[in-house]
Amino acid sequence: MSNIILADDHLIVAQGIASILQPEHQILAIAKDGLELVELVKQHQPDLVITDISMPDMTGIAAIATLKRINKHLKIICLTMHDEQEYAEGAIAAGAKGYVLKHEASESLIEAVNQVLNGGTYISTSITVDTDKPKLSSRQISVLRLLAQGKSARQVADELFISPRTVEFHKYSIMKLVNAKTSAELIQYALNHGLMD
């Protein structure tokens, strides 16, 4: 039996997910947003996290990047209604090992959980993920997310406890990776990949 934390801003949905997973797995806690998810994971140290993408305060993808920085071995599955390829690629780039669509949860979620817990990956068959796409590190995703919120390099640096020069270096690296020529294109990339809160 594995210990799981769920994150969804709709409690009734989270309870439905929990009922699919129990009694084979133990649900330690349910978070209502990305910030609470990060705190609960620090507190409970679960084997697996299952998170939605669209949540207040911090998106699921931003939370994944944060969690992977805290514990790179943590296994994470996105459970979402977003069937766009960009969201799936954003989640996988951030560190998720599974991507399941909510309307397929009753058939697919148990299989996804088992595969991810056993070291594999699971992506809903209706989604194509281009694994050749640039893979941003969790640190780069954090920098990009904050820059996309309109924060200055100094503000980003203060929030992430790094130097402004390091922020500029990350920004330059990200722009090269995602082929963005301007800050506006960088923000558009963050929007397209579900990194904006």
From TrEMBL:
SMART domains to which the protein is assigned, alphabetical: HTH_LUXR (SM00421), REC (SM00448)
Residues in Response regulatory domain copies? 3-117
Q: Which residues carry this modification: 4-aspartylphosphate?
A: D52
Domain called HTH luxR-type: residue spans:
129-194
Coiled-coil ranges per the record? Answer: none
Query: Which keywords fit this entry according to its UniProt record?
Result: DNA-binding, Phosphoprotein
What InterPro entries would the database entry show?
Answer: CheY-like_superfamily, NreC/VraR/RcsB-like_REC, Sig_transdc_resp-reg_C-effctor, Sig_transdc_resp-reg_receiver, Tscrpt_reg_LuxR_C, WalR-like, WH-like_DNA-bd_sf
The molecular function terms in GO held by this entry are: DNA binding
Q: Which GO terms are recorded in the biological process aspect for this UniProt protein?
A: phosphorelay signal transduction system; regulation of DNA-templated transcription
> What is the protein name for this chain?
Transcriptional regulator, LuxR family
Organism of provenance: Moritella yayanosii
Q: What is the lineage of its organism?
A: Bacteria, Pseudomonadati, Pseudomonadota, Gammaproteobacteria, Alteromonadales
